[in-house]
Amino acid sequence: MNKILKITLGLVASAAIVACNQQQPAKTTTNNEPAAKTEAVEKNVEKIVYVNSDTLSEKYQYFKDVRTRLEAKVKKAQNDLQAKGQAYQRELADYQQKAATMSASERQATEERLVRHQNDLGRMDQNASTSIAQEEQTEFTKVYTAITDYLKKHSEEKGYRLVLTYSKTNPAVLYADPAMDITNSVLDALNKEYKDKNAAKK
Protein backbone atom coordinates (compact mmCIF):
# COMPACT_ATOMS: atom_id res chain seq x y z
CA MET A 1 0.00 0.00 0.00
CA ASN A 2 1.89 3.02 -1.34
CA LYS A 3 0.15 5.65 0.74
CA ILE A 4 0.82 4.06 4.13
CA LEU A 5 3.58 6.02 5.77
CA LYS A 6 6.96 4.53 6.55
CA ILE A 7 8.07 5.04 10.13
CA THR A 8 10.94 7.48 10.39
CA LEU A 9 12.70 9.38 13.06
CA GLY A 10 11.56 12.92 12.60
CA LEU A 11 11.14 14.34 16.02
CA VAL A 12 13.66 12.73 18.31
CA ALA A 13 16.44 14.79 19.89
CA SER A 14 16.36 18.25 18.33
CA ALA A 15 18.55 20.80 20.11
CA ALA A 16 17.50 21.62 23.69
CA ILE A 17 18.79 24.94 25.04
CA VAL A 18 19.07 25.17 28.79
CA ALA A 19 20.13 28.27 30.72
CA CYS A 20 22.45 27.81 33.64
CA ASN A 21 21.48 29.73 36.77
CA GLN A 22 24.96 29.97 38.19
CA GLN A 23 26.13 33.54 38.65
CA GLN A 24 29.37 34.63 37.03
CA PRO A 25 32.10 35.88 39.36
CA ALA A 26 32.71 39.60 39.42
CA LYS A 27 35.11 40.70 36.69
CA THR A 28 38.44 42.02 37.87
CA THR A 29 41.18 43.59 35.84
CA THR A 30 44.57 41.95 36.32
CA ASN A 31 47.76 41.52 34.39
CA ASN A 32 46.67 37.94 33.73
CA GLU A 33 43.48 38.96 31.93
CA PRO A 34 44.27 37.01 28.68
CA ALA A 35 44.76 33.84 30.74
CA ALA A 36 41.53 34.53 32.63
CA LYS A 37 39.66 34.98 29.36
CA THR A 38 41.07 31.70 28.04
CA GLU A 39 39.97 29.92 31.20
CA ALA A 40 36.48 31.43 30.95
CA VAL A 41 36.19 30.31 27.31
CA GLU A 42 37.26 26.78 28.26
CA LYS A 43 34.67 26.66 31.04
CA ASN A 44 31.94 27.76 28.64
CA VAL A 45 33.03 25.13 26.10
CA GLU A 46 32.69 22.47 28.78
CA LYS A 47 29.07 23.53 29.24
CA ILE A 48 28.24 22.72 25.60
CA VAL A 49 27.54 19.03 25.03
CA TYR A 50 25.74 16.90 22.47
CA VAL A 51 23.59 13.81 22.17
CA ASN A 52 23.84 11.40 19.23
CA SER A 53 20.30 11.06 17.88
CA ASP A 54 21.23 7.97 15.82
CA THR A 55 22.14 6.15 19.02
CA LEU A 56 18.95 7.29 20.75
CA SER A 57 16.80 6.02 17.89
CA GLU A 58 18.53 2.63 18.00
CA LYS A 59 18.76 2.09 21.76
CA TYR A 60 16.15 4.20 23.58
CA GLN A 61 13.57 1.57 24.55
CA TYR A 62 10.64 4.00 24.54
CA PHE A 63 11.37 4.99 20.95
CA LYS A 64 11.87 1.36 19.93
CA ASP A 65 8.51 0.38 21.49
CA VAL A 66 6.70 3.23 19.73
CA ARG A 67 8.30 2.33 16.40
CA THR A 68 7.36 -1.35 16.82
CA ARG A 69 3.71 -0.48 17.61
CA LEU A 70 3.44 1.83 14.62
CA GLU A 71 5.07 -0.66 12.26
CA ALA A 72 2.58 -3.30 13.44
CA LYS A 73 -0.32 -0.94 12.69
CA VAL A 74 1.10 -0.20 9.23
CA LYS A 75 1.40 -3.92 8.53
CA LYS A 76 -2.16 -4.61 9.73
CA ALA A 77 -3.53 -1.78 7.58
CA GLN A 78 -1.62 -3.12 4.57
CA ASN A 79 -2.93 -6.64 5.16
CA ASP A 80 -6.53 -5.44 5.59
CA LEU A 81 -6.37 -3.37 2.41
CA GLN A 82 -4.73 -6.21 0.49
CA ALA A 83 -7.46 -8.66 1.59
CA LYS A 84 -10.24 -6.28 0.56
CA GLY A 85 -8.43 -5.51 -2.68
CA GLN A 86 -8.22 -9.20 -3.53
CA ALA A 87 -11.94 -9.60 -2.81
CA TYR A 88 -12.64 -6.70 -5.17
CA GLN A 89 -10.47 -8.26 -7.90
CA ARG A 90 -12.35 -11.57 -7.57
CA GLU A 91 -15.67 -9.77 -7.78
CA LEU A 92 -14.48 -7.83 -10.83
CA ALA A 93 -13.21 -10.99 -12.56
CA ASP A 94 -16.50 -12.75 -11.85
CA TYR A 95 -18.42 -9.84 -13.38
CA GLN A 96 -16.22 -9.84 -16.49
CA GLN A 97 -16.90 -13.54 -17.02
CA LYS A 98 -20.67 -13.24 -16.58
CA ALA A 99 -21.29 -9.82 -18.11
CA ALA A 100 -22.25 -11.22 -21.50
CA THR A 101 -25.02 -13.33 -20.01
CA MET A 102 -26.41 -10.59 -17.72
CA SER A 103 -29.36 -8.41 -18.44
CA ALA A 104 -28.78 -4.67 -18.80
CA SER A 105 -30.20 -3.98 -15.35
CA GLU A 106 -28.00 -6.69 -13.77
CA ARG A 107 -24.90 -5.26 -15.45
CA GLN A 108 -25.74 -1.76 -14.27
CA ALA A 109 -26.35 -2.88 -10.68
CA THR A 110 -23.12 -4.91 -10.63
CA GLU A 111 -21.06 -2.07 -12.10
CA GLU A 112 -22.46 0.37 -9.52
CA ARG A 113 -21.58 -2.08 -6.75
CA LEU A 114 -18.05 -2.45 -8.13
CA VAL A 115 -17.60 1.33 -8.25
CA ARG A 116 -18.77 1.62 -4.64
CA HIS A 117 -16.37 -1.15 -3.64
CA GLN A 118 -13.50 0.60 -5.41
CA ASN A 119 -14.35 3.92 -3.72
CA ASP A 120 -14.50 2.16 -0.35
CA LEU A 121 -10.97 0.84 -0.94
CA GLY A 122 -9.74 4.33 -1.71
CA ARG A 123 -11.32 5.75 1.44
CA MET A 124 -9.94 2.89 3.52
CA ASP A 125 -6.45 3.57 2.21
CA GLN A 126 -6.73 7.31 2.87
CA ASN A 127 -8.22 6.88 6.34
CA ALA A 128 -5.52 4.40 7.36
CA SER A 129 -2.77 6.72 6.10
CA THR A 130 -4.23 9.71 7.94
CA SER A 131 -4.80 7.80 11.15
CA ILE A 132 -1.28 6.37 11.23
CA ALA A 133 0.28 9.73 10.37
CA GLN A 134 -1.59 11.40 13.23
CA GLU A 135 -0.66 8.66 15.69
CA GLU A 136 2.96 8.78 14.52
CA GLN A 137 3.11 12.52 15.18
CA THR A 138 1.46 12.16 18.60
CA GLU A 139 3.66 9.28 19.74
CA PHE A 140 6.96 10.75 18.57
CA THR A 141 6.04 14.08 20.15
CA LYS A 142 5.74 12.20 23.45
CA VAL A 143 9.17 10.62 22.87
CA TYR A 144 10.66 14.03 22.05
CA THR A 145 9.08 15.51 25.18
CA ALA A 146 10.47 12.71 27.37
CA ILE A 147 13.96 13.35 26.00
CA THR A 148 13.88 17.14 26.28
CA ASP A 149 12.33 17.05 29.77
CA TYR A 150 15.13 14.81 30.94
CA LEU A 151 17.79 16.96 29.23
CA LYS A 152 16.48 20.09 30.95
CA LYS A 153 16.71 18.41 34.34
CA HIS A 154 20.10 16.84 33.57
CA SER A 155 21.51 20.14 32.28
CA GLU A 156 20.44 22.00 35.40
CA GLU A 157 22.23 19.38 37.51
CA LYS A 158 25.42 19.42 35.42
CA GLY A 159 25.45 23.13 34.56
CA TYR A 160 25.26 22.61 30.79
CA ARG A 161 24.40 25.75 28.85
CA LEU A 162 23.67 24.12 25.49
CA VAL A 163 22.77 20.57 24.43
CA LEU A 164 23.16 19.90 20.70
CA THR A 165 22.04 16.95 18.63
CA TYR A 166 24.40 15.08 16.31
CA SER A 167 23.56 12.60 13.57
CA LYS A 168 25.71 11.09 10.83
CA THR A 169 22.68 10.63 8.60
CA ASN A 170 21.56 14.26 8.93
CA PRO A 171 24.55 16.25 10.16
CA ALA A 172 23.85 19.75 11.43
CA VAL A 173 27.18 19.64 13.28
CA LEU A 174 30.16 18.93 11.01
CA TYR A 175 32.47 17.84 13.82
CA ALA A 176 31.94 17.03 17.47
CA ASP A 177 34.61 16.25 20.04
CA PRO A 178 33.83 12.82 21.58
CA ALA A 179 34.65 14.30 24.99
CA MET A 180 31.49 16.41 24.69
CA ASP A 181 29.29 13.37 23.94
CA ILE A 182 26.88 12.61 26.81
CA THR A 183 24.72 10.18 24.81
CA ASN A 184 25.44 7.04 26.83
CA SER A 185 24.72 8.60 30.22
CA VAL A 186 21.54 10.19 28.85
CA LEU A 187 20.49 6.93 27.20
CA ASP A 188 21.03 4.92 30.40
CA ALA A 189 19.00 7.42 32.42
CA LEU A 190 16.18 7.58 29.85
CA ASN A 191 15.89 3.80 29.63
CA LYS A 192 15.87 3.49 33.43
CA GLU A 193 13.19 6.19 33.70
CA TYR A 194 11.07 4.47 31.03
CA LYS A 195 11.51 1.06 32.68
CA ASP A 196 10.53 2.45 36.09
CA LYS A 197 7.40 4.09 34.63
CA ASN A 198 6.32 0.85 32.99
CA ALA A 199 6.94 -1.09 36.20
CA ALA A 200 4.81 1.42 38.14
CA LYS A 201 1.90 0.88 35.72
CA LYS A 202 1.82 -2.89 36.39
Automatic annotation (TrEMBL):
Signal sequence extent: 1-18
One GO CC term, this protein: cytosol
UniProt-recorded Gene Ontology molecular function terms: unfolded protein binding
One of the GO BP terms on file: protein stabilization
Coiled coil: 67-127
Keyword Signal: yes
Domain of life according to the entry: Bacteria
Keyword Cell inner membrane applies: no
Alphabetic keyword roster: Coiled coil, Signal
PANTHER family, A to Z: CHAPERONE PROTEIN SKP
Family affiliation: Belongs to the Skp family.
Protein name per Swiss-Prot or TrEMBL: Outer membrane protein
Naturally occurring in which organism (per UniProt): Sphingobacterium lactis
